[in-house]
Amino acid sequence: MNGPEPLELRHLGHERVIGCYLLETPDGPALQDCGPANCVPELKKRLRERGLELQDLRHLLLSHIHLDHAGAAGVLVREHPGLQVHVSEIGAPHLVDPSRLERSARRLYLDDFDRLWGELAPVPQENVHVAGSDVLGLACFPTPGHASHHVCYLDGEGTLYAGDAAGVRIQPSRFVLPPTPPPELDLVHWSTSLDEIERRKPQRLALIHFGVAEDAERHLAELRERLTAWSELVRDGVTEEEFVDAAGEELGPDRDTYQQAMPFWQSYAGLKRYWEKNAE
Fold it and tell me: How many CB atoms lie within 10 A of CB 248?
C-alpha cells in the first residue's frame, strides 16, 4: 500500500513547507495536524478537492501544539464546533488556554508572529480529548524530545504520522534535518523516542515537513546521525553564523526550501539553550 499524500497548505505562499494528512477513521474523516490559522483558507481548498467541507471532519489528531502543526485548531473549532481535538495530556491545557504558548512564541518571533501564524484561538475544554494509547484505531505513543508534549500515531498499514519526531525532509530530497527549536528540546528523550519508533518498525513516515518517506529505516538512522553531529557542533562552541553556514553547506541546493520549514537560526537557538541548561 502506498502512503497517504499530504494536504499542501502553501504556508506564506511556499510549497512543500507545511502539510497535514486526511485520515479515514471508524468515526469518519479526521485530520492529522492542521497547520497555522493563516493556512485555513488553503486547508479548506484542499478538502474541497477531496469532496469534503470543514464541517465533514469529525476529529483532529495533533502531534503537538507548536503553531505550524496546531495553530489553527481553535479557529477550526470555532467555525466547526463539532470537531473533536485529540492531543497529549501535557499539550491539552495549552489548547484550552493558549496565552502562555502565544507569549513564548511572540518572544521567539517578535513582530513577525502575526504574519507567520495568524490568530491563535482557544479550543473549548469540551472539544479537547487526551490522547491515550489508541485514538480512533491508531496506536498513539509519547515521543518527547522535539517537544515534551509530542505524540506519534501509527496505523495498521505501517504509516507513522510522525509530526516532528522523525525530523524534516522536504520530499523528494533525501536530506533529513533535525528540527531543534527552543524551548523544550531534550536530546536524551529524543533518542529514546527514536528507539520507540524504530521498535514499531514503521513502513513509511508521514511528515508534516514534508511528504511521505518510504525508506523509514534509513531516514531514522540519518536523523540520529545528524542530531548528534549538529548538537556536538553547538556544544563545542560554534557561533550561530558558523552553524547556519555549515548547515547551508550540507544542504546545498535544497538550503532555501529547508530554511522555510525549519530556519537554521532556530535550530541553533534550541541546541544552544539545551547545552546551557545542562551546564547549569
Answer: 15
| pLDDT per position as a tens digit, 196-240 | 999 999 999 999 999 999 999 999 999 999 999 999 999 999 999
The angle at the Cα of 174, spanning 173 to 179, to the nearest 5 degrees, equals 90
The strand pairing partners of 24, in sequence order, are: 29
CB within 8 Å of 7: residues ≥ 6 apart: 19, 20, 21, 22, 31, 43, 46, 47
What the block records as the C-alpha cell of 163 is 509530526
Assess contact for 109 and 124: CB atoms under 8 A.
no
Alpha helices in 50-139 (DSSP H): 67-70, 73-79, 92-96, 99-109, 113-117
How many Å apart are CA 271 and CA 157, to the nearest integer? Answer: 35
Encode pLDDT of 154-168 as tens digits.
999 999 999 999 999
- Which grid coordinates are listed for 209? 515537513
H or E element that contains 86: strand 84-87
From residue 81, give the alpha-carbon distance in Å to each of 3, 35, 62, 70, 132.
Answer: 30, 18, 17, 16, 22
